[in-house]
Structures are given as C-alpha cells and as structure tokens.
Amino acid sequence: MMRAKRTFRLPVVAAAILTCCTGLVLLACNTSTPASGAVATPATSSGNSSPAAADTNQGPAAASLPTLKELEALLASEQQSAQMATQDPGNYGWDLFFYTSWPVLANQRGAPDPSKKLGDPGTTVWESWKNTSETFLPNGHPPLAWQAAEVIPPAVAKEPFQPSDSGNVWENMTGNSEVDGFPAKDNAGQDILYEIRSDQNTFDYIVSLGLYNIDGQIKYAATKGGLGFAFGAMEIKASWRWLDTDKPGCQAQDYFTANAFWAVRDQNGKLTGYKTGLMGLTGLHILTKPLKDWAWITFEQVNNESCTQVTRRDPIPANIMALNKKFQTLLAGSKWKNYELVGVQTSAGTADNPVLLANTQIETAFQSRSSCLTCHAVASIARQKPVNPADDLRKSFLQRKPPVSPPYYIGPPPPLAPFVSQDFVWSLRRAAWYQK
C-alpha cells in the first residue's frame, strides 16, 4: 500500500535480499532487511553476513502512523501487497506489525476495533487468532468454531489477573524450546516461552480440508497433492519472558505484557500443574502470503541483548535502524516504541549468496544458518502412514547431506520428493493422529 505521506521507490537491486532467519515450527530473526528500496547484502558462502548497503533511496519520514483504513486496504489488495512486500519491504513489515498489533473488537476474533488506535490497551488482533492448541487437538478431533472462546484450564481460570496491556485474558504458552530443541533463557535464567497463532483465513483452510489431524493431512496429500493457502493467510510466532526481574530495562513498563500460563509436566510428560504470571513480549514472527513464497517479517524488543541471554550475530542494518527510529518516534507514549523491525524476507537467494533472517529469541544458536523461507519451504507430509519406525512422516528441515553446522538448509530449498508440500506452514506439525 502506498500512502501520500511516503515516497515509494524501486529497489536498488531487482530482488530484495535480506539477512534473515528461520524459526518455526513457526518463527523470528536477526537480519538485514531492506527498507524503502534498500537491499541488504546477502550472506557470503562462508555463512557470514556483510553490512547492508546504505539506503540512498529512502523516502521522507512519515508525518503520522497509517490509519486502520489504510492498513485494511493494503491487506485487501493482492497487487499492492505483493508490490510493497518486494519493493518496499521495510515499510511493509511495519504495516503488518501495526495491523496485527491493533486492538481487537470485543468478542470478535481477528477484527480490529476502529474506535481504538494503535497502542490503546487491550488484546491485539494477533492475540485473538487461534492458538495451535485450539486448532490441533490432542485427539485429532475438529476444533471449535472460529468465534468460540479459547478454553482455559479451570486451575488457571481461578487465578487472579495482574494488570496487563492485553487485559483480562490468559495467553497459553505452548512451547519452551526453539526449533533446535534447546531453550533460550532470560537474564534470570528462565526459559523463553512461545505460542503460534493463525488468522481466520489460515484456520478456515485447515478446517475445510480436514488438516487438523495427521490422518487428514496424509489423505489430502495422497488424493489431492500439495496445499495452497489463499492470498493473505497469516500466522504469528511470539516469544515471551516472565517479568520477575528488577533489572532496569527488563521490567513490565518496557514490554507489551500479558497474563500467561504454562503447563508444567514431569519427565514422563504427565501434567503436574500450571505456572501463571505476567509475561513480556520479546519477539514476534509474522508470516503472511502476499507472494507465492510468502513474506517473513520479524520484530524484537529493543533490550533483548541485555534482558535475555542472547547475542545478535549481525547488526540490524543502518537503513532499517533509521526506519525503526522514525516509527518508534511516532509510537512515543505506547509500549510499541520498545520494539524494532529486524528484517523482512521474500527471497531465498542463491546457493552462493543465501538470504538469511533470524530472531535472537527464536533462532538464538543458529543465526548463521537461519532462513525463514528456506526452512518453511521444507514443510511437507508423506502420502501414506509410515510403516516402519525409521520412516519419516515429513521431510526433515535438517540438512544431513552434505553435513553442515548448524545443520539447517539455507538458500534454494531442497527437493521434497517423495513428500508433498504443505505450502510453508510448519505449524501443521502440531497435529496429532485421530483418536476415537
């Protein structure tokens, strides 16, 4: 979408090459993203990134934040979305952040409230989307309807709410490790926790095709082939930390906050109780489909390197930092001023010059081989139920031949055969087998 307050420029180079990372079993990154036509230098063949090229074509600073009508117009136009994602990725990434972070209408999942403005207190649009725990049930049964309220365990529901930016709602954390199986830690030594949520476009597609269990996914692959989500489909992966520290810059006033719970289990996986409390948002992956290969956007809280046990491998490029400063100034008075765009990825690059994107909260230890697009391109399923324990249900996102370290695909995605593509949506791995 192009607004009068922005100057729209063609990119310096034909394709927007960004330094990005993959993380998902859905995502965030530490990268070099071009903005307003700037193009970041791709990673070298050794896996290191060069500094991004200076943005000599960036338009003048926006006089104001986009309106909700402008954001909705962008998301409704496939042509404008595709054009902006590829030619003005930095502003596109911020626009998606603005839209998904808009306060939601009460009792209307996914619908932004036109009577509110960005930064007003209340549950955001993305927080109202369906959690993977709602879409993929442990018994593989159909999920509740889109507008059905999220089911909260009675033991959690009786706990008192703390004042939070999200209001009186519970956020269900569904993961405590990154895609490599290891947890990221905050400055107090506690695990960073994660959740994945899908918009109605994505949710309806999954339900309509019976993809909410593994049986349905295999049946569709065997009879119909690969999946094809519609234009505009969206998912997020959010990372959160417990706010029980007194370290300056790492407290509730520095984060977008929510009341959250985490299911505590013993070494055998048996539920032993729930941890509840106030959490702060540390990272946000936004996946959306304006293009055939989707667009990958990642944001982080500005103090992550001092408030969590992470180190950013590659600095955010100067042109993105300038764009961040512009919007952070316009967001003064809002918690969102404490967040920054890390990168936007729309290309995998080449074998010699792969495009990387990584979020320090989601791809902490493998930032040097993190490509959101490449990793998600491997999302797949077998055409039949594996017969032998050694047979794979899905193609692995780990590159085994030739061996590399960290062991992740980057650059052009590998062939999937004999598996069938699931159109970049790794959250489908959360599905279970159907049980009566």
Average residue-wise pLDDT = 88
Calculate Rg over CA atoms. 20 Å
Number of helices: 11
Could you say which overall geometry the principal axes of the C-alpha atoms support? globular
Blueprint (SSEs and pairs):
Blueprint: H1 68-76, H2 78-87, H3 89-100, H4 125-128, E1 130-131, H5 132-135, H6 154-157, E2 170-173, E3 193-198, H7 200-208, H8 214-223, E4 234-242, E5 257-265, E6 271-288, E7 295-301, H9 304-307, H10 318-330, E8 339-345, H11 372-377, E9 380-381, E10 420-421
Parallel strand pairs: 2-5
Antiparallel strand pairs: 1-3, 3-4, 4-6, 5-6, 6-7, 7-8, 9-10
Helix pairs in contact: 2-3
Provide a quick synopsis of the model.
This protein is α+β, with helices and mostly antiparallel strands. The protein is built from eleven helices and ten strands.
Kindly describe this structure.
It is a single chain. By secondary structure, the chain is an alpha+beta fold. The protein has one domain (68-430). It contains eleven helices and ten strands. Strands 1, 2, 3, 4, 5, 6, 7 and 8 form an eight-stranded mixed beta sheet that branches. The termini are far apart.
Descriptors:
two-stranded antiparallel sheet, alpha+beta, about 425 residues, about 20% helix, disordered N terminus
